[in-house]
Amino acid sequence: MRILAHVFFLKRQHSHSLLLTTRSSPLMSVITVENISKQYIIDHKKGKGVNTLRDVISENFRSIFGGKKDQTTITHEEFWALRDVNFSIEQGDRVGIIGHNGAGKSTMLKILSKIIQPTTGTVRIRGRVASLLEVGTGFHPELTGRENIFLNGSLLGMSRTEIKKQFDEIVAFAGVERFLDTPVKRYSSGMYVRLGFAISAHLDPEIMIVDEVLAVGDAEFQKKSLGKMRDNSASGRTVIFVSHNLTAVQALCNKTLYFEKGRLIEQGETNQVVASYLSKVSKTRLVRQWDTPEEAPGNDLVRVRRIELIPDYLDDLTHIDVRTSMKFRFEFWNMMDRANLNLSLHLNSLTGECIFNIGTQSQPYGKGLIAGECTIPGYFLNDGSYTISMMIVKDTVTPVFVMEEGITFDVEDYREGIAWYGKWPGYVRPQFPFHIKMLEPVVSES
Amino acid sequence: MKTHEVVIQPGRSERHYWRDLWRNRELLYILSMRDVTVRYKQTALGTAWGLIRPLTTMLIMVFVFSKIAKLPPDPGIPYPLMVLGGITVWTFFSTAFTQISNSVTLNSNLVTKVYFPRLIMPLSSIAISLVDFLVSLGLFILLAIWYKFIPDWHLLLLPAFILLALLASFAFGLFFAAVNVRFRDIAQLIPFIVQVGFYICPIAYSSRLVADKASEWWAPFYWANPMVGIIDGFRWSLLGEKAYFNPQSLLISVSIVLVCLTLSLYFFRKRENTFVDDI
């Protein structure tokens, strides 16, 4: 990782001083971004924030008549949506942009799409760009599907002849044949999205900029559109793709940019960048404890006193890796006189998918502090970030209390005797026994 | 094919702006069609509204100004014909002006999501007023036939006055469109301007009445209104020599319109890059 960062550091230096050499290199940069920053001035005003002509006029009148401009009521706060961003994208690259909300991803896309102007810096783009910042840009609810195809298509930069040529294919892809002459306001939201995406999927630009479009639509359609986008990029097209869906980024993009608070903090191969994003996102929290029932989470029936994940660290390691076995321990107060209780543990991935759910047998308990533990073996979880949620259930059906994401932890990668360093697929990495033997050796006849 | 390099820099206007505008002419057409198609959707009377409005306005004005206030028309011209001529061109100007002023804010969903030369928005917003104008011009022709009024060679100059009215709406509208993005006060101001304009322009009356009072202190202000020359000229080309027309007022109109158009275009081009930050 350190080496990678170093390489990019060098590259950045290059793009400053040796722009000509970079451009004449065999892999042509189609997009060069240099020192891009975008600043917004936020006006903080007493009372209201709307800037009407009256405010401006009264402000200026006051100063004309010798009054001081009201310094105290208006403060200007500078906000940098982007700060000193540098990168370059080569032809045929499929680049993912990831980061938290407000990290500057969308601002970056809008600058590349010429929608907003940067405050400083330069962007050079070679080739026809189509940006897809929302599905069905400019769709008018009163217009029919047919009319909207032409409207949206030409907004995205298609000519009318191009649209006519692709028309049937677009309609078939969206599956709206029967509703072509219905106003889109009568469309279901699924149809609306499908039509919008179908049009943009039939664009033929050299560079395609896509923002979070796949977040909408049903799973089936998402798969279809992701496939379509991959086909597009196979034909040498450059794709820039912003998404919160890391799985989609990993499936589609070979390179990834990671933005945080307006800065580009990491760029490189997708798996590397996504991994480091995840590691920064996750916050390891192995113990949580509350000393008195009053402050403990819970309700009148049960309150959690302590939950803890105790890793059985290997040798002198201080982190959990794929070999480490762990004990999950819990203590809770039961305030019910006599209740049949059982416990249900959910182990979730950071993206929220449940990897497994295990429960205990239901048993009668009286009032008091109850403790227990459960062991998660080593060589079971794959590397990644996980959370554990705990549910206390009464009479095997009624959840009494759910403790969401009580424990958060990371499992690091560990490999021995393997020269491959790609991301190990899957959520679990068990070591089931193999039995392999040679059945029929080929005897060389010499 | 060699693709040109696009450079994005702060404060840099698109070098190929006018070429881009030309390339987007299909978008201009489609946006215009959108506005026209959408306008009368879900109305029972549809395009008939384009007829009903000028017709009723004319009837009311004929009643109020000719029967009650007893304003005289130009000699030899029926009063309804004079009024309808004025209403036709004024409505054309004022709807175009209103539409242009609101064009950017009405299309804010496009401004924030897609790039195209922003001038497309005010340009496409003219379509509605053009359609309405043609309808009411047809109405005028019918009325002229009714009054057995045959137009003469003056009619050949009509396109020039239509163009001038259009340029005037552009000259003023473009400026307001750009200001409107930042200050929504403009949206409140526009109907007021149109209302005032209706009375200070020679629509219900003839400029001849003002020409007769040339010594009044307010007369020069009246002639400084660029719309006076345009409306008078429009009527003159439709109704011939009998309609009052002062060529000097046309000179004022043309110069004001051209100066304003240049300034507005400059202002709009300067502001358009930051529309998205303010909208």
Please give a structural write-up:
The complex is a heterodimer of chains A (446) and B (279). With 446 residues, chain A is of the alpha+beta class. Chain A has 2 domains: 2-46 and 74-280, P-loop containing nucleotide triphosphate hydrolases (Rossmann fold, 3-Layer(aba) Sandwich); 287-411, abc- transporter (atp binding component) like domain (Coagulation Factor XIII, Chain A, domain 1, Distorted Sandwich). Chain A is built from 10 helices and 18 strands. Chain A has helices spanning 2-17, 19-24, 53-64, 105-112, 145-155, 160-174, 189-201, 219-234, 246-252, 270-281, and strands at residues 29-45, 74-90, 94-98, 120-126, 129-132, 207-211, 238-242, 255-260, 263-269, 287-289, 302-312, 325-334, 339-349, 354-359, 363-365, 368-376, 384-394, 398-411. Chain A starts with a helix and ends in a 35-residue tail after the last strand. The model of chain A is unreliable at 1-26 (pLDDT under 50). Chain B has one domain. In chain B, α4 (79-106) runs antiparallel to α7 (126-146) and α8 (158-182) packs antiparallel against α12 (226-239). The radius of gyration of chain B is 20 Å and the shape is globular. Classes of the chains: A alpha+beta (446), B mainly alpha (279).
